[in-house]
Amino acid sequence: MAKTKFQVGNSVISNESIPYFIAEIGINHNGDMNVVKKLIDAANATNWDSVKFQKREPDLAVPEHQKGVIRETPWGELTYLEYKKRIEFGKAEYDEINSYCLSKPLDWSASPWDIPSVEFLAGYDLPFIKVPSAHNANNELIKRCCELEIPIFLSTGMSTMEETDATVNFLEKHSNGEYVLLHTNSSYPAKNNELNLRLIETLRERYGCLIGYSGHEQNLEPTVVAAALGAAVIERHVTLSHDMWGTDQKSSLEVNAMYLLRRRVISAIEAVGDGVKRLGEDELKVRHKLRG
């Protein structure tokens, strides 16, 4: 049965907690560890809880019909497979990421896109593992993630409600109940009128588990609304600049926006309150003044 309160790293996530903030670096680093460290520094400075990456074995993860497609890249003209290999991090880089995050301290994790990548990530003491929308129906990968016995965050993008039913049933059978479904629209960038944020409430009522939000919109307001609707986890892509090369940069938050978003989310949650009618200290003073 799904748990609605559990530990993730140094944080406890629940329906009553401030959301757990994940800065999705993803592949926005373009293979440059200097960019990675600057974004880790940014996440730490803006009080986000975690950074996250994407881990692939490109020969397995890249679809066959995409492997030979030619792309213009900062490193010249490459096939899509060559490009993916060019920016993929291995053990040396992840060891450095692990050490750098521990020095803050700041949580980190990654989304595995294939079974060897799950095995690779199992070599680190991760606070959670993330199943991306592209693999939220991949039962083999989900089962292996469950076997790590750490919390699972799973994005629901590109899935019908019936497909999500099947995924949740699978998680109920194979996980320890520590999982969060992230409402997601997998367009990059996602249009506001297609976000359908009330699905956060629908998913919570349907499955009784913690629900989060992984946003790909270009502005801040939808994520603030998602938090006000009860998202227990917030994930947004982050970048040093929208002008950097890469498909995810435009739908990512720059550093100042990371600071603004967290502040606005907390302000919105404070304003929403708990729905219990009470008179605060300041209102009682006004009551006494006007009513005696």
Could you characterize what this model shows?
It is built from 12 helices and 12 strands. It is an alpha/beta fold and 292 residues long. The protein has one domain (5-55, 107-291): Aldolase class I (TIM Barrel). The strands form 3 sheets. The protein has an 8-stranded parallel beta sheet with strand order 7-4-3-12-11-10-9-8. It has a two-stranded antiparallel sheet with strand order 1-2. The protein has a two-stranded antiparallel ribbon with strand order 5-6. α7 packs parallel to α8. The radius of gyration is 20 Å and the shape is globular.
Shape: globular
CATH topology tier name? TIM Barrel
| Estimated helix fraction | 25-40%
**Whole-Å distance between the termini?**
53 Å
Order of helices and strands: EEEHEHHEEHHEHEHEHEHEHEHH
* CATH superfamily annotation: Aldolase class I
Figure out the total of helices.
12
Q: How many distinct folded domains?
A: 1
User: In angstroms, what is the radius of gyration?
Assistant: 20 Å
What fraction strand?
A: 15-25%
CATH class, please? Answer: Alpha Beta
Q: Would you tell me the overall average pLDDT?
A: 95
Q: Strand order within the widest sheet?
A: 7-4-3-12-11-10-9-8
Give the name of the CATH architecture.
Alpha-Beta Barrel
- Outline the low-pLDDT stretches: none
Number of strands: 12
